[in-house]
Design a protein that fits this description.
alpha+beta; 2 domains; 9 strands
Length: about 300
């Protein structure tokens, strides 16, 4: 399955359901040049995610961390963790991702398997992700198993669902054996930056078309302007203003492809006061002018 955009609600939670109620697992082949933005925007979801780089390097942003994955390397992204993934230097890069609910291998939420082996990881406050490298033996074993799950999902031979579930159970067992001593379930988060940034991002997404400023963004997160800037830089590596501009351009790109409204009107609709400045900012993020973008991608 190939996605072309990430749909999120006001809280940045992804709205797409991964898998089904009777088999809560979804596998995606992510070709970055097919995404509207050219990358996977900030979002989070309840499901645990394993991603594996197939071609060229990708950069995984997890709150205030940047993790570079070379081909053949992977990552586990924990439940409810805010993340974003971009090409490192080549828009043609490709990876596959497995998103699954813990009940797939744990059964009911009150089961022994869930409580003893899954919850210690999923409910950990200080475990956001685990990098999977080829030069670490136990991590390499997990990468080999992930590749098998990917192959099974494409071949779809009889019984492939059972085999995928078995591989994921083995992967999880490898994981919990290696990190069980490092997990401290009761340790509180040292910083509220991630929640503050989520609140600020929600405000921007609700008011991007208005004449908003740093004071308004900071007020929405109940913090000072300087604290707002610091939190954005730590978590997202951009300023609040840069995030606002990027989001406005993203919404403008959607409108350019949805209708034939004038570029001037679209610039006003997404919060820009002048078409010249809009064109300059749009080109910064999309490497082409609004009209060039429309001519290249518009489907009548």
């Amino acid at each position: 399955m190939q996605a072309t955009r990430i749909e999120v609600n006001d809280d940045l939670q992804e709205t797409v359901k991964h898998g089904s109620h009777d088999f809560p697992l979804a596998i995606y082949t992510d070709k970055f040049d097919l995404f509207e933005d050219g990358y996977i925007r900030w979002h989070w979801h309840k499901e645990v995610q394993f991603s594996y780089s197939l071609y060229d390097k990708v950069v995984v942003y997890i709150e205030d961390e940047e993790i570079i994955l070379c081909p053949g390397e992977g990552i586990m992204i924990n439940s409810n963790v805010l993340h974003q993934i971009k090409p490192y230097d080549n828009s043609n890069c490709m990876m596959f991702s497995i998103d699954f609910d813990s009940t797939l291998i744990g059964g009911s939420e009150e089961s022994l398997i869930e409580k003893k082996y899954l919850s210690p990881i999923i409910e950990s406050n200080n475990l956001k992700f685990i990098s999977l490298k080829l030069d670490v033996p136990w991590q390499k074993r997990i990468l080999v198993h992930l590749e098998q799950v990917f192959i099974l999902s494409h071949e779809k031979a009889y019984g492939y669902e059972l085999e995928m579930k078995n591989y994921l159970s083995i992967i999880w067992l490898n994981l919990i054996k290696e990190i069980k001593e490092d997990i401290k379930r009761t340790v509180p988060s040292e910083s509220n930056d991630d929640e503050r940034v989520k609140m600020a991002m929600q405000y921007i997404q609700n008011h991007y078309s208005d004449n908003i400023d740093l004071a308004g963004i900071a007020r929405a997160a109940n913090i000072s302007k300087s604290e707002c800037c610091r939190s954005f830089k730590r978590i997202l590596k951009v300023t609040p203003f840069e995030y606002l501009m990027e989001y406005r351009v993203s919404k403008a790109a959607e409108l350019l492809l949805k209708n034939k409204d004038s570029i001037s009107n679209i610039s006003l609709d997404v919060g820009f006061n002048g078409i010249s400045y809009f064109g300059k900012v749009f080109k910064k993020y999309r490497k082409c002018s609004p009209s060039e973008y429309r001519n290249k991608y518009f489907r009548s």
